[in-house]
Design a protein that fits this description.
The protein has helices spanning about 10-25, 35-45, 60-70, 75-85, 100-105, 115-125, 140-145, 150-160, 175-190, 200, 255-260; strands spanning about 90, 95-100, 165-170, 190-195, 215-225, 235-245, 245-255, 260-270. The protein is α+β, with helices and mostly antiparallel strands. The protein has a 6-stranded antiparallel beta sheet, with helices on both faces.
Length: about 280
């Protein structure tokens, strides 16, 4: 009997699909995007998902989703990006997501890699009811248009990543420890978890008199919680790894610091249970 070749790994399948896209003669519908750059950037992300980069655009929510898409479903990532480039839309799990003609025709300084702009801007625009996504808009308008709400993250978890079981764990008093405990279990079960934080406080160690939730990160795991006395904020201590700004970051924070700058976690998993809804 002739031995059968081993089955392709998910990354090999994605690389093969990307080669098919690269060799396709179908014209793109994004006049300002260069196909060679898009393909090269997609290839680098399949090889290393940490290359997903929001650049100077306020797309932290979509970037977190795209990172997990590439990391866990590289073939679906290629199919989505190819469909977006060639047709301007792609199939979510329950509905089609389309980039508007205005978005596809936008030109100017994207402030981020082209492949990431195409996907992240489309995701962001798909949930914007009023403000358009415009690469050259003033910073204030770009930031307003780029705000991602927890329910939008839950929607993308279902439509893009295909996780039917989702939950937002919001932090009340000491709720951040419960949220991290839940995230640990979800990640261990093959799911994903995204935290809403104050970036300057948690990732940049800059004190803020009035912290606000302004940044989404992907929780990667290695979550360690040392719990102390409830009435002593800094007797607790946490460590965990995250994806943000195209790199892996290790967070090491005292309990009080976490309470000030950690707002909640959106989680998604495939298996139903009583805690993730």
């Amino acid at each position: 009997m002739t031995p059968q070749p081993p089955s392709l790994t998910p990354i090999q399948q994605a690389q093969q699909a990307l080669t098919d896209f690269e060799q396709s003669n179908v014209a793109g519908v994004w006049p300002s995007l260069d196909k060679k750059q898009v393909v090269a950037q997609m290839r680098s992300r399949i090889d290393d998902p940490f290359q997903v980069n929001q650049g100077a655009q306020p797309f932290c929510g979509p970037a977190s989703i795209a990172f997990e898409l590439v990391r866990k479903q590289p073939l679906r990532y290629v199919h989505i990006c190819r469909s977006l480039f060639e047709t301007g839309s792609f199939a979510g799990y329950t509905q089609s997501i389309t980039a508007s003609n205005r978005l596809r025709q936008s030109r100017g300084k994207l402030r981020m890699p082209q492949a990431d702009w195409m996907l992240l801007a489309t995701l962001r625009e798909s949930d914007n009811l009023i403000l358009p996504v415009e690469p050259n808009a003033p910073e204030l308008l770009r930031n307003l248009a780029g705000i991602t709400k927890p329910w939008e993250m839950k929607g993308w978890l279902r439509e893009i990543l295909g996780y039917p079981q989702t939950k937002y764990s919001f932090n009340y008093i000491f709720g951040e420890f419960k949220a991290l405990d839940e995230a640990t279990n979800v990640i261990a079960a093959g799911g994903v978890a995204f935290a809403l934080i104050s970036a300057e406080g948690l990732l940049e160690n800059k004190a803020s008199l009035l912290p606000v939730p302004n940044h989404w990160i992907t929780l990667l795991g290695n979550i360690s919680i040392q719990k102390g006395r409830l009435w002593q904020r800094d007797s607790n201590h946490v460590n965990f790894d995250v994806y943000s700004w195209a790199k892996k970051i290790h967070v090491d924070a005292e309990g009080g610091h976490l309470q000030d700058y950690f707002w909640g976690v959106v989680m998604g998993r495939m298996a139903a249970n009583n805690t993730t809804k």
